[in-house]
Write the structure tokens for this entry.
Amino acid sequence: MQLPLEDYLSNRRSVKIMDMKGEAPSISELQKIMRIASRTPDHGKIVPWRFCVLPQENRSSFCSLVEKATRNRYSDPSPETVEKELSPFKKNLGIIILIFSPVDHFKIPLWEQQLTCGAVGMNILHAAHAYGYVAQWLTGWISDDQTINAKLGLQEQEKIAGYFYIGNSDQKPEDRARPNMSEIITSWEG
Ligand SMILES: Cc1cc2nc3c(=O)[nH]c(=O)nc-3n(C[C@H](O)[C@H](O)[C@H](O)COP(=O)(O)O)c2cc1C
């Protein structure tokens, strides 16, 4: 059931990967999600982002990469630590990696390009909900791991903006603390 937009925007929450289950989006749904997410304000129309999908059929080789990186990161990690790092990639979830891909431009500063990429990220979450899914945006150490990023084909100037995990959930997550609006809104007195 589609909620009116105001209800949806007022109540959307991320759902933790461990609470996701059920069907993952199909590749065609992921493509639609990325298309919607790309409808984002972009000063100069320079597209400072790209996506990398982690398809189900390549997850076991991605898990091998993550396992190797985990063993490099922690000296002699416990089997539980290794399993914890691998678990998001073993679940039946859609996974999109959002890559910040800055453009050397005479007029558009890096900061604005970063803002655009962040807006694409927020749009991925909304687009996932539009197809009835829930989602979570995570970075973590894995996003900065040089060996994994090299295997993902990142160029020197690129950076991972996030891994987006998309799945189903039959639970409504409790809300988290939200900003006190009176602390973040002022009205200019002239
Ligand atoms: C760029 C970015 C990176 C994040 N990385 C992590 C992370 O590595 N680990 C984590 O626990 N939460 C991380 N979060 C926060 C989660 O996305 C969290 O689910 C979210 O803030 C919950 O808020 P919401 O329910 O309003 O979506 C990150 C958020 C952003 C925007």
Q: What stands out?
A: The two ends are 46 Å apart (CA to CA). Residues 13-14, 136-140, 162, 176 surround flavin mononucleotide (CB under 6 Å). The longest helix spans residues 110-130. The longest strand covers residues 159-167.
